[in-house]
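WARN  no MSA supplied for this record, continuing single-sequence
INFO  ligand: manganese (II) ion
INFO  echoing inputs
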Amino acid sequence: MRILLTNDDGIHAPGLAVLEAIARQFSDDIWICAPAEEQSGAGHSLTLTRPVRMRQHDARRFSVSGTPTDAVTMGLRKALPGPPDLILSGVNRGANLGDDVTYSGTVSAAIEGALAGIRSIALSQVYAREGMGDTVPFAAAEAWGAKVIAPLLGAPFAPRTLVNVNFPALDPQAVKGIRVCRQGFHDYARGSVVEGTDPRGYPYYWFGLHGIEHTAGHATDLEAIDEGFVSVTPLQLDLTHDASLAALAERFA
Ligand code: MN
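INFO  complex generated
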């Protein structure tokens, strides 16, 4: 089984090494094609206005000077000798839950894989408090990663769907299990916009992490993580809101 690994935290991120260790429990045919620099928050962006550079670090390890979507595209079109059987994206440093998935480069890399018709899974490690940087503990992902991936290898993946996995910020033995659940949503209350002055005297703005406040949903990814479970959420690329189709059509009748 050929597996392509990517992420949005960059080729040197600790979470990518965690993901490689998880993937090697399933195969030795592991390929890495990841952004050269951190791309968190890049969403599904594709670099169109400048060239993309790819650097080969060893026989099966490449970095790309663009977004996670660029990295998957380069992996599929240029780096790998043929299509992978599986794409794993992560393990992200931080949650990708609820409606945050649209900001996520980690999830978007898996979206790109799903568009290419390849079984794709995004994996993220929730952590307890802000400002932990590269000290974020990946213990839950390390211990539970293979347990959550193994059943997904034989599961049916409908066209243009992917699976989004989040590991709770708990020691592995405190994790209660794995819960398949739908995507939740946050209350819309964006966090701080930090304002400062740069060395040349101009103001700059820096978006802080927004809180994870959310109205308790029913069987959502947010709820599963709150209750100490690994969340497993199937996502689809068809964003159509079916329930609105008829009402909108009436407006144009
Ligand atoms: Mn990230």
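The chain has a mean pLDDT of 93.
INFO  checksum written, moving to next record
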